[in-house]
């Protein structure tokens, strides 16, 4: 498993659960899911560091 696969893992699993091929044109769904997940994690991390 490469680093890219590990980073994209959450979106890939959600796409597979929805029945969408994450490597096709619907990869935008995987990108959106990963963006939302990592945004929330980053904001929580910043909030913990700042607070």
Automatic annotation (TrEMBL):
Name of the protein: Uncharacterized protein
Transmembrane segments: 28-50
UniProt keywords, alphabetically: Membrane, Transmembrane, Transmembrane helix
Naturally occurring in which organism (per UniProt): Planktotalea frisia
């Amino acid at each position: 498993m490469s680093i890219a696969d590990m980073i994209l893992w959450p979106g890939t699993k959600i796409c597979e659960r929805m029945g969408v091929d994450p490597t096709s044109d619907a990869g935008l769904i995987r990108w959106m899911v990963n963006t939302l997940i990592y945004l929330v994690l980053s904001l929580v991390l910043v909030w913990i560091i700042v607070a």
